[in-house]
């Protein structure tokens, strides 16, 4: 019997090639979208799953006087870890992480620059489950000046030699010797902590580190089983008040985030330097929801076409019932056909996924693979899911078809079914409502991203190349600047302690207005060379730029307009120009020489913060900014590289265009916009496939009506309008339903941006016209084909 069912199912699929192809392609696209998103979601949720469940990261909320808004940061104070362990029994162990990028290591004649090295407490390898291949994980980094290195680092430094016990040197401010005590497996890609080596933190500890108030490292705690993170959070105000001087504790809050939540649930946490491939879980969930909608649209297509073609199967049902078949047998057969179709769609979906994954990996910067055969559980999941899709898609058509009464069917009196047509209309409206909603969302997401990328930030970022400096290469900055400035390929050279587009540091400053009472406040700081504002074309509202010579008044400060308003908050009648010459800065030892117009030195997700700029070259710089001649990028880069190599022959040359850096700032937004756009495109494609199938069926069923109309003088245009208007009307209704849903959702989404586009009616009208146009193109082929057919052929049987 089952073999017979299979034969009948296959014959019906082959007989109705167009509708079968539409269903298979539609389901395949929906399944492929779901599988790709499922793989992405699974990859994201796998981050740090190989570690213990009771590890948390310490985070702070900083709310200093003078800040535009409080901010969450992933940093913490050096003494916190030991103090928490000694005072709270819930804390079983701790480790702190101080990181260094481009860390130089030398073995014999071989010198390498490791991308990132951590200095950690001895419990690091006891707390985290990173795999140790050689050496003892319990004691690898207990002794000062010991180091555990990864396989990749071992290969770079030692080749095939055994690294254990070998001495390697670091040349920085001082020469430090390290003994290799362990070799570790490379850090997994789904770990937020990516490192090339682990140094013993006690070996580099200095007295200044023990001060409370400085935030410059990460702290992780291992809690006792059953510890409530919420209850531990409540104890932190008392902890801060006990250890910090005066009322300074009031400017901080401490909260703990479980390690497995850090990767996906810290979008609002700044200075989150060690969170590799950080991605907001809200976006991941959004992808999953949209992919599910796309699959539902594909299922709706099957239900629509199956019920629409019910009359074609009516006689089959009547004959089989008249010879003894019962309803559940027929329903089972029709469900079997649907499941067979779904399994065929799965095969095509897997092919589509394999073709799409290289593009997905390039877009997401992940290494996602399709584990069809390597993970039996995954294969079982997608096959089970496919069977479920088949059941969901076919349950209504199966019950509907199996309900036909044999007497009526064999008499040819099967009712056309008003309710059946109403259901199809509802499903079509649901399909296009979802597709139109996604189209509107895509347009607004793309417009917002384009707005952020093209909005004038208040400074020049075109044709600017940035180069990182460390303590060694930074000592040759002035000579590097001098040699570059003499070349016609270079328009200017400057330097700073931070790079625009990155989260700038904050510091405390004092302010005295007309020698009045001193006010202490915090603000964002930018330490620069004296020609920084000129190179970046940062405009001054009033005052003057930094002096080329040292000022007799001490340090010179330039503040932005936001900072100026903050300083004058207690002096409402004072004018902004009165701030020029006022005592300001670290311990009020400098003066304000200029006020810069506000510029967006950070992402447009955030408002402009209060900022002061100080020319303090003797503190050293971390970034060189070089403005190059337009149209001469390749020649300029080659010249800069040659100059760098002549001054720093042992240091690698690394550079980045500032435009590329800002593109990276908006990388996650760009990924979201592209994924939503792709899913919206798939939704409209599948909806149009269904519309094409229904239009084909409608034209087929009305072929004699069309023939009569043509004989009576109806034009091709009027017949096309007749056949098209019904479907166009459904698309218009879909737009009217989708508009308020899209307006509400987009308004909520845009609230996350400090600077955002307006929601205008024009976008909704554009999407409505586009959706109607796409629908017309989809159904016009069948409509025109029916309208130009020879009426003699269609009326021949009458």
Automatic annotation (TrEMBL):
Keywords: Cell membrane, Membrane, Transmembrane, Transmembrane helix. Residues 289-406, 678-789 form the ABC3 transporter permease C-terminal domain. It is found in: Cell membrane. It comes from the Bacteria. The chain crosses the membrane at residues 21-43, 286-305, 330-357, 377-401, 422-446, 675-697, 718-739, 759-781. It is a multi-pass membrane protein. The keyword Transmembrane applies. Pfam families: FtsX, MacB_PCD. The keyword Transmembrane helix applies. PROSITE patterns: PROKAR_LIPOPROTEIN (PS51257). Residues 20-236 form the MacB-like periplasmic core domain. PANTHER family: ABC-TYPE MACROLIDE FAMILY EXPORT SYSTEM PERMEASE COMPONENT 2 (PTHR30572:SF18), MEMBRANE COMPONENT OF TRANSPORTER-RELATED (PTHR30572). This is ABC transporter permease.
């Amino acid at each position: 019997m089952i073999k017979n069912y299979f034969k009948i199912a296959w014959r019906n699929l082959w007989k109705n090639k167009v509708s079968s192809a539409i269903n298979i392609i539609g389901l395949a696209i929906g399944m492929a979208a779901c599988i790709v998103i499922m793989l992405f979601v699974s990859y994201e949720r796998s981050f740090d799953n190989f570690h213990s469940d009771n590890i948390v990261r310490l985070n702070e909320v900083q709310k200093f006087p003078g800040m535009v808004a409080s901010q969450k940061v992933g940093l913490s104070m050096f003494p916190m870890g030991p103090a928490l362990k000694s005072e709270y029994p819930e804390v079983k162990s701790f480790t702190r992480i101080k990181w260094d990028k481009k860390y130089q290591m030398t073995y014999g004649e071989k010198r390498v620059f490791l991308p990132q090295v951590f200095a950690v407490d001895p419990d690091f390898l006891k707390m985290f489950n990173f795999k140790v291949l050689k050496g003892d994980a319990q004691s690898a980094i207990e002794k000062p000046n010991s180091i555990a290195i990864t396989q990749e680092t071992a290969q770079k430094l030692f080749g095939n030699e055994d690294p254990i016990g070998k001495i390697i040197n670091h040349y920085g401010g001082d020469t430090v010797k390290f003994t290799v005590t362990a070799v570790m497996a490379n850090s997994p890609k789904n770990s937020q902590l990516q490192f090339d080596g682990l140094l013993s933190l006690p070996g580099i500890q200095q007295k200044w580190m023990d001060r409370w108030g400085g935030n410059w490292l990460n702290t992780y705690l291992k809690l006792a089983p059953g510890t409530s993170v919420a209850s531990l959070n409540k104890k932190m105000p008392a902890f801060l008040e006990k250890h910090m001087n005066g009322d300074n504790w009031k400017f901080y809050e401490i909260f703990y985030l479980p390690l497995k939540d850090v990767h996906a649930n810290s979008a609002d946490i700044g200075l989150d330097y060690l969170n590799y491939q950080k991605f907001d879980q809200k976006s991941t969930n959004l992808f999953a929801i949209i992919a599910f909608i796309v699959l539902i649209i594909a299922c709706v297509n099957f239900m629509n076409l199956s019920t629409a073609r019910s009359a074609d199967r009516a006689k089959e049902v009547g004959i089989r019932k008249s010879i003894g078949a019962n309803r559940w047998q027929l329903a089972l057969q029709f469900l079997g056909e649907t499941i067979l179709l779904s399994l065929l769609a799965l095969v095509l979906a897997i092919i589509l996924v394999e073709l799409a994954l290289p593009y997905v990996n390039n877009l997401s910067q992940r290494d996602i693979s399709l584990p069809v055969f390597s993970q039996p559980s995954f294969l079982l999941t997608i096959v089970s899911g496919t069977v479920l899709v088949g059941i969901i898609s076919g349950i209504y058509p199966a019950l509907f078809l199996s309900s036909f009464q044999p007497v009526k069917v064999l008499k040819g009196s099967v009712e056309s079914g008003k309710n059946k047509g109403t259901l199809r209309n509802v499903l079509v409206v649901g399909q296009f409502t979802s597709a139109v909603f996604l189209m509107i969302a895509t347009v607004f997401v793309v417009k917002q991203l384009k707005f952020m990328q093209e909005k004038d930030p208040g400074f020049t970022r075109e044709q600017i190349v940035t180069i990182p400096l460390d303590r060694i290469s930074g000592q040759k900055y002035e000579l590097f600047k001098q040699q570059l400035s003499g070349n016609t390929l270079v328009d200017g050279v400057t330097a700073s302690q931070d790079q625009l587009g990155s989260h700038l540091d904050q510091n405390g400053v004092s302010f005295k207005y007309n020698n009045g009472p001193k006010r202490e406040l915090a603000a964002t700081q930018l330490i620069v060379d004296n020609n920084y504002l000129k190179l970046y074309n940062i405009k001054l509202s009033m005052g003057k730029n930094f002096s080329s010579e040292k000022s007799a008044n001490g340090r010179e400060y330039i503040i932005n307009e936001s900072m100026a308003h903050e300083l004058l908050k207690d002096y409402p009648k004072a004018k902004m120009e009165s701030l020029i010459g006022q005592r300001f800065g670290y311990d009020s030892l400098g003066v304000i020489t200029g006020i810069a117009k506000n510029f967006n030195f950070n992402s447009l997700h955030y408002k402009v913060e209060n900022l002061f700029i100080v020319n303090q070259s003797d503190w050293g710089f971390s970034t060189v900014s070089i403005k190059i001649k337009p149209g001469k990028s390749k020649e300029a880069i080659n010249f800069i590289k040659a100059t760098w190599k002549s001054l720093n022959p042992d240091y690698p040359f690394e550079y980045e265009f500032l435009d590329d850096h800002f593109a990276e700032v908006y990388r996650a937004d760009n990924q979201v916009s592209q994924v939503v756009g792709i899913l919206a495109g798939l939704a409209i494609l599948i909806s149009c496939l269904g519309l094409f199938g229904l239009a084909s069926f409608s034209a087929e069923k009305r072929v004699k009506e069309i023939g009569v109309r043509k004989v009576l003088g109806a034009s091709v245009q009027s017949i096309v309008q007749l056949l098209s208007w019904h479907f166009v009307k459904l698309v218009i209704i879909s737009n009217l339903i989708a508009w308020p849903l899209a307006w509400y959702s987009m308004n909520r989404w845009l609230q996350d941006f400090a600077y955002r586009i307006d929601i205008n009616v024009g976008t909704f009208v554009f999407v409505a016209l586009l959706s109607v146009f796409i629908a017309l193109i989809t159904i016009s082929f069948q409509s025109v084909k029916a309208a130009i057919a020879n009426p003699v052929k269609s009326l021949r049987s009458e």
